[in-house]
Amino acid sequence: MQVYFDNSATTIVSERAAQKAYEMMTENFGNPSSLHTMGIRAEEELDKARKTAAKYLGANEREIYFLSGGTEANNLAVFGAAESRKRLGNKIVTSMIEHSSVRDACKRLEALGYEVVYLKPDKSGIISSSELEKAIDGNTILVSLMAVNNETGAVQPYERVSGIIKRKKSPALFHCDYVQAFGKIPVKTEKLGADLLSVTAHKLHGPKGVGALYVRKGTRIIPQHYGGEQEGALRPGTQAAPLIAAFGEALREIDFSAIENVKKIRDYILGFISSLDGVYVNSPDDALPYILNISAVGIKSETMLHFLAERGIYISSGSACARGKQSHVLSAMELPRERTDSALRISFSKYSTMEQAEYFCEAIKEGAQRIVRG
User: Fold this and answer.
1) pLDDT at 169 over 80
2) Mean per-residue pLDDT for 137-149?
């Protein structure tokens, strides 16, 4: 049996999305910027995908900009917002547990002279609303807070950020990295109050290499690329029409009700591992069910990963972008080193099954018993 429980790294592309990408590459392959019939047909597919993305974001289609994925969306939001607001202040508020595409962008801005406040999570991996309240002030020009942590599944107080900014009378723009939440937690950007919101296709059964940035109407950010009028000149360059159209197909297959089955699978695994010696849960109780972070103390993450892979089970030790480095998220939570060294991230999709969960549990039990703990 093959068990793929690394869906927070990437998901399988749905058949419909893959077929749409193939169609766009072999039949409807015109450049969307071309004025002839084939160009217009390709542009129509982009328009359809944009309308679908806008629907699931509760936004206007003119507020959706396609680009290469979550990392570019986060970079554009952070750098573009900071540059556009630099006359209004110098302070950026973010957290220690953001994805590296936000965290490293903020470090770069810090090197350029901006003041960056990195809020520390509590022991469960959640940023405190009161700490956000303390940090945001009249000098704050950007607040960047993720919705769901990509390593632990901890849901952050992102729905409170806009209200805090208003209460503090801050000029800050609010950027939300919604990558791990999109397609799993419904969102209405107007109600959320986000000025900028990042999503990507490959976390919800679309292709890699395409994502989107929501930019609230009237919000000004500075482009980071130049050379064309595509995507409103905010992200110029010939659009990846096959990927964008496939993204639209994947969006049309979103099933919010799948969370119920995922929760049953997550709870089954939680119940099983609770009986295993030396296995700890690092995700909070109210985490998004799609992500479960555990530690088999005494067994290095890499050792357990190889043991499971030999049995056709694929999980990860943390963020795929970190490539096996020590988790900055678990370190920020101040977990003991023996737990961070043995951390495993198990992440599910709407295609995950209870049969796979049972097979995984037996394998993790075998690994915990057979591998020599160091």
Assistant:
1) yes
2) 98
DSSP 320: G
Mean pLDDT of 14-38: 96
Q: Which pLDDT belongs to residue 373? A: 60
> How far is Cα 112 from Cα 238, in angstroms, rounded to an integer?
31
Distance CA 72, CA 228 (A): 17
d(CA 204, CA 28): 24
Among left, alpha and beta (phi > 0; psi -120 to 50; other), residue 244 is: alpha
Give the count of alpha carbons within 13 A of 5, CB side only.
Answer: 35
Q: What is the pLDDT of residues 319-353, one digit of tens each?
A: 655 555 779 999 999 999 999 999 999 999 999 99
- ∠ Cα 367 368 373 (to 5°): 110
User: Which positions are catalytic?
Assistant: 321
- Site of tokens 């103390």: 297
pLDDT at 326: 78
pTM listed for this prediction: 0.95
The predicted pLDDT at position 284 comes to 97
Rounded Cα gap, residues 374 and 187, in angstroms? 45
CATH code for the structural domain at 3-12+255-370? 3.90.1150.10
Does residue 4 register a pLDDT over 70? yes
Contact indicator for 154, 287 with CB cutoff of 8 Å:
yes
For the chain, domain boundaries? 3-12+255-370, 15-252
| Count of C-beta atoms within a 10 Å radius of residue 218 | 7
**Confidence band of 242 (pLDDT split at 50, 70, 90):** very high
How far, in Å, CA of 318 to CA of 346, rounded? 9
| CATH code of the region 15-252 | 3.40.640.10
Q: CA-CA distance, 39 to 274, in Å (whole number)? A: 57
- Name residue 67's beta-bridge partners: 211
Q: Where are the alpha helices (DSSP H) in 86-219?
A: 100-111, 129-135, 161-167, 189-192
Contact 81, 173 (CB under 8 A): yes
